[in-house]
Amino acid sequence: MSDMTRRLFGKTAAATAALAYAGTAVPKLAFGKPKPRLLPFPRGFIWGCATAAYQIEGATEVDGRGPSIWDTFSHTQGKTNHGDTGDIADDSYHLYKEDVASLKALGVHAYRMSISWSRIFPEGKGRVNPKGIDHYKRVIDELLAHHIRPFITLFHWDLPQGLAGGWQSRDTALAFADYAAFVAKQLGDRVGHFMTTNEFTCFTDLSYGNGQFAPGLKLPPGQVNQIRHHAILAHGLGVQAIRANTPQGTAVGLAENAHVYVPVAETAEDIAATQRATRDRNAPFLTAVMEGKYIDSYLQQAGADAPKVQPGDMLAIGSPLDFVGLNIYTPDYVSADQSTKGYRVEAVPKSYPRMDQPWLLVGPECMYWGVRNVCDLWNPKGIYITENGCSCDDAVTDDGQVHDTDRIMYLRNHLTHLQRATSEGYAVKGYFHWSLLDNFEWADGYSKRFGLYHVDYQTRKRTPKLSAYWYRKLIEYNAVV
Ligand code: PNW
Question: What are 175-188's pLDDT values in tens digits?
Answer without folding.
Answer: 999 999 999 999 99
